[in-house]
């Protein structure tokens, strides 16, 4: 029997699975090829190397802390933990590349699953193909940054929430909460969406599910989410005195809202503008900050006040800046202008 005949003999579901498997494999190969062509030297030079520093500290048994400093709760820890597991603390380009390309290919599969649940097989194939070829994912998902892992976990969490909402199964609800928690531990900005997703599980569905069952599904998801986040929150409280997902929020607000934000961005990376803003702090600013660095949360509060003061001083300027940032993020031209 010819290959064409064998394919024709398969069921529609089987053909769909083979097509998606082919797209996922192509996504993996494209990601490995694109990053490998860029080379290891560029990978390490143009990266968020602090992630690897934390990963190496973890792998060497020094805990989640920067070298020479006390344990930190600056940002959520899952990506450095992932890097530590993948590299064992070694600067291994290929280990990171293969692992993150696999994760990014997993995102393609999750998109296909989600699209099929909502719209059917044909749309799922198109969505998977777009995700596989999307230039941003193709390049950035294998960079030394948490984006690829976060997108995978966020997409998988969304698919699991939809699955739990449709099936109302205990396992589905618990898995949805677990993966939502893991996504938040990769990038804390997902927290509002996670809470919305839990509430969405209570909303009446097309199957006329009883309110009690909808509430139970939401509570199971919330319990799994809380259990996943609790160890990190407890640790953060021990370090800062607060139950917080991280202490980077204040510096992030200041870094994106200051007089130098658009000095270099979007022609260059926003990180260039951020670094310029921090270097431009006055001596008086540094005197105020010096005692606060004993507590990360207090230092974050200081930066938050500075960022908010800049926003409140000219709300129109802030709104115009927000539009410019969105154009830079989603416009035709890349940012930075490589």
What does this molecule look like?
With 338 residues, this protein is mostly helical. 74% of the residues lie in helices and 0% in strands. It has 18 helices and no strands.
If helices are DSSP runs of H or I spanning 4 or more residues, what is the number of helices?
A: 18
Q: Spans with pLDDT under 50 lasting ≥5 residues?
A: none
Whole-angstrom Rg: 22 Å
Strand content: under 5%
Global outline: globular
What is the count of β-strands?
0
Largest sheet: none
What is the subunit arrangement here?
single chain
Helix content: over 70%
**End-to-end distance, in Å?**
51 Å
Indicate how many domains the architecture comprises.
2
Mean pLDDT: 93
N-to-C SSE series? HHHHHHHHHHHHHHHHHH
Secondary structure class reads mainly alpha
What are the defining features of this structure?
338 residues; mainly alpha; 2 domains; 18 helices
Topology:
Elements: H1 3-9, H2 12-38, H3 40-45, H4 49-59, H5 78-87, H6 93-119, H7 121-133, H8 135-140, H9 147-167, H10 170-184, H11 191-200, H12 211-240, H13 249-256, H14 261-264, H15 270-279, H16 283-292, H17 296-313, H18 315-330
């Amino acid at each position: 029997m010819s290959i064409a005949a064998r394919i024709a003999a398969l069921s529609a579901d089987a053909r769909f699975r083979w097509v998606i498997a082919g797209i996922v494999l192509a996504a993996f190969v494209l990601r490995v090829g694109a990053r490998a062509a860029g080379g290891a030297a560029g990978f390490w030079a143009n990266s968020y190397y602090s992630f690897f520093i934390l990963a190496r500290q973890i792998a060497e048994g020094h805990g989640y802390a920067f070298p020479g400093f006390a344990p930190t709760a600056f940002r959520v820890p899952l990506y450095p933990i992932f890097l530590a597991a993948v590299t064992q603390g070694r600067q291994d380009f290929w280990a990171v590349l293969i692992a993150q390309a696999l994760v990014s290919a997993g995102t393609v599969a999750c998109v296909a699953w989600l699209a099929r649940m909502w719209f059917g097989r044909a749309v799922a194939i198109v969505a998977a193909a777009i995700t596989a070829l999307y230039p941003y994912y193709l390049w950035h998902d294998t960079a030394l940054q948490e984006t690829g892992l976060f997108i995978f976990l966020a997409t998988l969490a969304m698919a699991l929430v939809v699955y739990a909402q449709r099936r109302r199964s205990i396992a589905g609800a618990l898995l949805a909460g677990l993966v939502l928690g893991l996504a938040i531990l990769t990038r804390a900005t997902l927290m509002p969406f996670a809470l919305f997703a839990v509430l969405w599980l209570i909303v009446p569905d097309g199957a006329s599910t009883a309110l009690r069952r909808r509430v139970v599904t939401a509570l199971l998801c919330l319990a799994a989410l809380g259990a996943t986040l609790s160890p990190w929150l407890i640790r953060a409280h021990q370090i800062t005195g607060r139950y917080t997902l991280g202490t980077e929020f204040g510096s992030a607000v200041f870094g994106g809202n200051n007089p130098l934000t658009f000095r270099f961005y979007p022609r260059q990376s926003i990180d260039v503008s951020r670094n310029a803003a921090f270097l431009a702090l006055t001596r008086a600013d540094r005197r105020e900050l010096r005692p606060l660095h004993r507590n990360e949360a207090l230092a974050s509060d200081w930066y938050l006040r500075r960022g908010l003061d800049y926003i409140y001083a000219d709300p129109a300027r802030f709104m115009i800046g927000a539009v410019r940032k969105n154009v830079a993020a989603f416009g035709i031209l890349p940012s930075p202008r490589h």
